[in-house]
Design brief:
The longest helix is centred in the middle third of the chain and has 23 residues. By secondary structure, the protein is mainly α. Helix 1 packs across helix 2, helix 4 packs parallel to helix 7 and helix 7 packs across helix 8. The protein is about 70% helix and about 0% strand. It is elongated, with a radius of gyration of 19 Å. The chain is built from 9 helices and 2 strands, in the order αααααααααββ.
């Protein structure tokens, strides 16, 4: 009988999460040359802990990106309780813009992951499509969102908004564009948007 898999201690999980959080910040700030020791120190752990979890810089970059992607996708379902789907969609769009802005900042770092033979984006589209689909389905059920749009439609618009948010000084503009998109996602009632 094979041995049971080892359970990760809670402090080890916390260290790993903190490393991923700090790494995402560092790489989003385009500090690609940040030394692993500096990332570990900023996370409050030793460099050995960093290497135990992430043996290469590319593994750290990929894991940091995957964590950000997972967090924004999981946020869709987390936002629904206690809100209309339209309200949840607005909040999710704000989270998406923050995620996408960080991803644009991480572009150079992610290119090193791609060069190493790993595709960090392999599951991105499917995960994001599912997240938006969750919100659209809830909006169809509660009547707060149109039913004639697809997740792909919404993601295409959101990609454009996120790209503008990635440029300096355009946060206010991206907030206005999110508002406009949300207005477009609302159903018509009596010839007007709900």
């Amino acid at each position: 009988m094979p041995p049971a898999p080892r359970r990760t201690r809670s402090d080890a999980r916390q260290n790993r999460e903190r490393l991923l959080e700090v790494a995402a910040q560092v790489f989003a700030e385009q500090e690609l040359d940040a030394a692993p020791a500096a990332i570990a120190k900023r996370a409050g752990v030793g460099v050995g802990t960093l290497y135990r979890h992430f043996p290469t810089r590319e593994a750290l970059i990929d894991a940091a990106y995957q964590r950000q992607l997972t967090m924004v996708c999981e946020k869709a379902a987390e936002l629904l309780p206690g809100r209309t789907a339209a309200e949840a969609m607005r909040e999710w769009m704000e989270h998406f813009v923050a995620y996408a802005t960080a991803k644009y900042g991480m572009a150079q770092a992610l290119n090193t992951v791609i060069a190493s033979g790993t595709d960090p984006y392999a599951d991105s589209r499917a995960l994001l499509t599912d997240a938006v689909g969750t919100l659209l389905a809830a909006g169809a059920a509660d009547g707060s969102l149109r039913t004639d749009l697809t997740s792909e439609d919404v993601l295409l618009f959101m990609g454009g908004i996120a790209q503008s948010a990635g440029q300096a000084g355009s946060r206010e503009q991206s907030a206005r564009l999110v508002g406009l998109l949300l207005d477009a996602l609302r159903p018509f009632e009596g010839g007007r948007r709900a």
